[in-house]
Amino acid sequence: MTALAAPPSHAKWNGPRLELPMKTLIDRAQLEADLDQLAECHGGETPAFRKAAVQVFADALAQGAEIARAELESGGGGLACGAHLAFVEDEILRAIHACVLKHILPDAASTRLCVVAVGGYGRGALAPGSDIDLLFLLNGKNRGRAEAVVEAMLYFLWDLKQKVGHATRTVEECLKQARADMTIRTTLIETRCILGDEGLLDTLLARFDQEIVRVTAPEFVAAKLAERDERVRRAGSSRYLVEPNVKEGKGGLRDLNTLFWIAKYAYRVHDAEALCAAGLFSEQELRLFRRCENFLWSVRCHMHFHTGRAEERLSFDIQRVLAEKLGFKPGAGLSMVERFMKRYFVTAKHVGDLTNIVCAALEERQAKPRAVFDRIFGSLRRRSKPRDLGPFAIETDRVTVPSNDVFARDPVNLIRLFWVAAHNELPIHPDALRLVTQSLPRIDAKLRANAEANRLFLEILTNANSNERALRLMNEAGVLGRFITEFGRIVALMQFNMYHHYTVDEHLLRAVRELASLELGHYKQELPLTSELMPTITHRRALYLAVLLHDIAKGRPEDHSIAGAALARKIGPRLGLSDAETETAAWLVEQHLTMSNIAQSRDLADPRTIQGFAGKVQTIERLKMLAVLTVADIRAVGPGVWNGWKGELLRTLYWETELVLAGGHSSVDRKSRVERSQRELREKLPAWSDPEFADYVARHYPAYWLKVDLPHRIQHAQLLYASAVELNSLATEYSTDAFRDVTELTVVAPDHPRLLSIIAGACALGGANIVDAQVFTTADGLALDTISISRAFDQDSDELRRAARVAKSIEQALRGEIRVTALLADKTKTAPNRAETFIVPPDVVIDNSLSHKYSVVEVSGLDRPGLLHDLTFTLSRLNLNIASAHIVTFGEKAVDTFYVTDLTGAKVTNPARQAALRRHLIEVFAPKPRVPKSA
């Protein structure tokens, strides 16, 4: 093993200051001595020597990486880890170069060559899984010999399995490339001589500065900011994604790099400290820059070491590990993961603040085009001449402060600034936002109690044209969390689950945006019902407040809906809401999950479901408001969460409940509704004879005619008729429903207790996610089951091919050609184990009050492949008939509801049998033996 010691005096280090024990640095003299000894044994140019030399280099790299990892995991900083790895790499490159000249190409010893680190490596920090970016700078003479040296060095690096990005150019070639390519210019901003003729690099940088940088700052800045926009769009437009990309995401390391590149290019300086002297950063802001950089580097290095690769996405399974390694502990109602991620998102916000500072300063220098600024901070259309500016002024079409004492003279101006911007639909100048941040201590209890400040805030909140942008700016500046202290508790708070895509504060701001979009009529085609309801709502101020506050109590030990309602009762009067408005807002917050849960997990054709919900809502006004809030809430959760299936369920629940609240539910009795349903179908089947139709009607029980809509009744009649003609007791049919965003599978088969379980298992084998199931039995013993599965493809042709494969699997399973249970057991053993990442305690609730006829069994727990099959198999094994199943998944959490009876058609009322049912269903979630993926 290569000895480790202090670097020899001639080993020049140009990277960040190294703060590691001297023992951790490679003794290159010893390394070269080891190579000399190998050359004597094997001969310098033999394959045996090369193989042995590669092993020496590999051992040194591995030992250096292990020491860097140990330093990091014992509490060392991320930048120190990166600096250590970069220094180790430098020494290896110097040793490789010396080895090539001494033992491989001794006749090239006098060749002029400069090996330059560029990019991240050029900054003197290297992550464990990062590429090694090198520029081999030639002087133009003896080029063939110099390129042979480069090639020999690269072969050693490739044999070491290193990912090397490299270019071999002269000074002139570098300048020519830089004039044409922004990426080349970026690499030349951060360069560091590793070995060789440093004069070549000095010449290149001097000419690069004079001939290119000096005259192209605006062009470079615009290109880098546009590049940032595109990168952020690809990685996810919000910096508050709960699984962020540490390198490429908004507020990540690349953003820090970009603003540093821009600043260095525009100010023509070589290090961060010089930016303070140039007036760009204050000392405090420079320290913030360093803290952000060090924290993000710590996260990234830990990720690379933990995964053994260049992993940049901070996924849920990594978050728990990193929270522990970085020393986070649970506290203040938050888990260690939530505290770690809160720190991450606060850091990402700081990166955004620093970006704003740099952009504002560059605009002052006219080094940055306005169009880019507007793209970054949000383009707000100027409607008319600015009005009601109060103590503020307009500068370059943005609201700004005329003097630095504007907030000291009247702290209400800290709220008025955002009101003026929202009122005039104008952005706020970054200099004003910078002063706001410095003035945050002035937002105290006195200001929070100020009637004028609260009036202005409520007007900001209820201004549909600009409320989301204004509230977002207030949140970014730290004003929102200080003015509404309860909101401050959930700023940058993540929810450690797979359902929510954003932090709590980001989700709430997006929900406000959804509500404003509904009011402005942006969703008339997509959301016709709620778009019609919104203009008719009387208490719109209460609705806006409820949307802003509905998750404000997340992260507290008590139920967040109940705690949130209490906070709404406290905040409402302060903002100027009447008692009636405040109570309405509090009720909406407390019930904000009710409509969604009932729509997705209850039988909406059961009169008891509608009656129970109507009893909670009580008035049509509350029903309208809750419907609108529910839609805004779901749509703000994240991409793909809202779909037509959920919309249809909510509309059905709304219309059925409105009918009850309007007093019209009893106007048509059950028998008359069944007869009307049958008449509607008869009109659509004119080719059927009366005896044929009468026989068909007799096959169905009354519940079928009440639950199934006309298009499905027609489809079922034709399918059952065809099955009878073909003497086929097993048939499947499938179709897509783009509006509901589901694919429907209809199955006709002889009824037996395990039927739904087999169907669910076949769907799971095909990777189909069941979201709803309607189960009917005909009087002659056939089952008629309609299964709705989530779409996997946008194009109907692709989705139909997938549905055909799933339908075939169902038929094979029902014929006994494949053993679903055994195949699912094998699949489950090798599937990703969510139990290692998430903790979702299983729960079973049995309620006999929710339906006149059925026991309602609600099962919740950690989702996994085949779960629905196992649950339905357990129910059938316990001799229970499933009348309907309602399947909901909230990320990693499954909530499945079954309407069941025993074999006699009675509810499950016996306490001993209920206890046994709970026990058996909870056992379904018990961990099962697993095998490695490689097994």
Short account of what is shown:
InterPro entries: ACT-like_dom_sf, ACT_dom, HD/PDEase_dom, HD_domain, NT_sf, PII_UdlTrfase/GS_AdlTrfase, Polymerase_NTP_transf_dom, UTase/UR. Helices cover 55% and strands 11% of the residues.
Average pLDDT number: 86
Number of helices: 41
Structural class: alpha+beta
Question: What separation lies between the terminal Cα atoms?
Answer: 34 Å
What's the count of strands?
14
Helix content: 55-70%
What strand order characterises the main sheet? 7-8-10-9-13-14-12-11
Shape: globular
Gyration radius from CA atoms, angstroms = 34 Å
Share of β-strand residues: 5-15%
In terms of per-residue confidence, which ranges show pLDDT below 50 for 5 or more consecutive residues?
1-15, 18-23, 370-382, 931-935
Give a quick account of the main beta sheet: strands, pairing sense, barrel closure.
Answer: 8 strands, antiparallel
GO biological process, one term: regulation of nitrogen utilization
Protein name: Bifunctional uridylyltransferase/uridylyl-removing enzyme
Family: Belongs to the GlnD family.
Domain ACT: 744-825, 856-933
